[in-house]
Amino acid sequence: MDCIIEKQNKVLLVSRKNYPFGFSLPGGFVDYGESVEQAVIREVKEETSLDIVEPKLFGVYSDPARDPRSHTVSVVFYAKASGNPKASDDARDLGFFDLDNLPDEIAFDHLKILKDYNEFRKKI
Amino acid sequence: MDCIIEKQNKVLLVSRKNYPFGFSLPGGFVDYGESVEQAVIREVKEETSLDIVEPKLFGVYSDPARDPRSHTVSVVFYAKASGNPKASDDARDLGFFDLDNLPDEIAFDHLKILKDYNEFRKKI
What we know:
2 copies of one chain form a homodimer.
Chain A: E1 2-7, E2 10-16, E3 23-24, H1 36-48, E4 56-61, E5 74-79, E6 91-98, H2 110-123
Parallel strand pairs in A: 1-5
Antiparallel strand pairs in A: 1-2, 2-3, 2-6, 4-5
């Protein structure tokens, strides 16, 4: 699962320590025995130190080619967070990026997710 | 994944051939290499012979206790279908049920999904 965290019209991306490299939304895999909502709260905390509350479902991305390692399904949430993020765990670094000025190298299908989110946020 | 198919204010449920028994939404597991949208179209066809088009995301259900066999995540869609369904594959029988008069024995967390859907459909 992955999480879109927006703050002052920018979204939080992490620079990945592991293959595939590039920037991505904070996220990771659900552990056996936890819900996807619990998993996204845990992964965001691990990678960014931020606490999110009440993540909302944004979409489900399951193109077999979305992850070069293997076929994975991502449940994508969006959430608000307060405080200042700090990179840790799988994140080498992080930052907030303008949705209209994203970094060049974005891992997985997260550029598509971010484009979909950019359209979605104009409607809400 | 599972699919809510509504027709004339009733939803389609199948009577399961395999444990856990009872009625359930048509659905099943995503095969490696297919998207969840492809999977839900395939599973509905296999179990009910119906063709659905453009399934829409309803929710993601991942309570670790939702499936007595193991921890599973279900991406739930809703879709329209035309024609008459016919039970096959994992479905012993099937029928359309009024959301306010559902059968007693419903497998997995599908009663919760159907209650959530009943609330949702009042708003759309």
